[in-house]
Amino acid sequence: MRKSSVRRACAALAAVTSLTLAATACGGTTKKDVSEENASAASDAKANPDAELKKGLTVGFLPKQVNNPYFTSADKGGEAAVKELGSSYKEVGPSSATDTAGQVNYVNTLTQQQVDAMAVSAQDPGALCTALKQAMKNDIKVVTYDSDTKTDCRNAFVSQAGAEDLGRTEVQLLAEQIGYKGEFAILSAAQTATNQNTWIDFMKDELKDPKYKDMKLVKVAYGDDDAQKSFQQTQGLLQEYPDLKGIISPTTVGIKAAAQYLSGSKYKGKVKLTGLGTPNDMRKYIKNGTVDAFELWDPAKLGELAARTAVALVSGQITGKEGETFTAGDMGEYTIGKDGVISLGKPTVFDEKNIDQFDF
Ligand code: RAM
């Protein structure tokens, strides 16, 4: 084998096995030549809040889906923060929100490229675990953002807002719009998505309150964060449930497609739609009376916080344990909560009064 092909074969081996093993087999060492014992020792390391933020790092972002405007905004926020901190940014990711195998490959690619940290929005809670653990064994810090994996498969999760808050407030928003009465459905993203499934569980829990006794959740449909599929699912819901009074879509792709369908149909303004959308996608549906109110956080801020968390982890300011604190630049101080969760803050509710104040 020529030297370059040996190098390539070794790099590929490193991505799927342990780098230590690959380094031995290939007769060399890598900067991430860490044994399993060292890796677990690293996770027991103590945080040093006074540590200097390291520069010259490489931070990789791996969203659920690259051609989704929500992730374009989130990752732009990440990119700006990584660059401001003197490090290099890269983004890789699948174009479909249901390409779990693709996401696993991208984790392996980032590991193989020996990035210092990766920020990942998981399509599926368990599927990425082996690959992410492999990354952590090789001394790569793993931050999930937007959609989490299992807690032992990453160092920290940067959450957009309290999951409980999001689930409950979406039901409250719809209930107000339909007068606490009638059938409604949920139009979600992928069936495996950790974030949407967590919010839906809280929605179901919220519905147990007797004040919702006249509201009935008839179906959870999945549009897979695909515009066309989400549009068709909305159409299908209205055919199947002609008395439907409302839809909650906790996905920016789903709510936009549902609004598009409703706005061109006889249901416009009659079937209420709420959930999570971006102001720029939803402005016209607020203005034309299809949608009264919906909510979201600022995706760019979420990406920024993920980037700052990644760099703080690599620098040793935090290790991901509950109670540790760090300063995320101008965003201020954050404290790591239970299970390594860092929460961005409260979501914003958008309606015709405030929607023009936002541009994302
Ligand atoms: C979609 C994705 C993302 C989710 C937003 C609200 O863009 O499913 O994971 O957080 O909607």
UniProtKB/TrEMBL annotation:
<feature type="signal peptide">
    <location>
        <begin position="1"/>
        <end position="25"/>
    </location>
</feature>
<feature type="domain" description="Periplasmic binding protein">
    <location>
        <begin position="59"/>
        <end position="317"/>
    </location>
</feature>
<dbReference type="GO" id="GO:0030288">
    <property type="term" value="C:outer membrane-bounded periplasmic space"/>
</dbReference>
<keyword id="KW-0732">Signal</keyword>
<dbReference type="GO" id="GO:0030246">
    <property type="term" value="F:carbohydrate binding"/>
</dbReference>
<dbReference type="Pfam" id="PF13407">
    <property type="entry name" value="Peripla_BP_4"/>
</dbReference>
<dbReference type="InterPro" id="IPR028082">
    <property type="entry name" value="Peripla_BP_I"/>
</dbReference>
<dbReference type="InterPro" id="IPR025997">
    <property type="entry name" value="SBP_2_dom"/>
</dbReference>
<dbReference type="InterPro" id="IPR013459">
    <property type="entry name" value="RhaS"/>
</dbReference>
<protein>
    <submittedName>
        <fullName>Rhamnose ABC transporter substrate-binding protein</fullName>
    </submittedName>
</protein>
<dbReference type="InterPro" id="IPR050555">
    <property type="entry name" value="Bact_Solute-Bind_Prot2"/>
</dbReference>
<dbReference type="GO" id="GO:0015762">
    <property type="term" value="P:rhamnose transmembrane transport"/>
</dbReference>
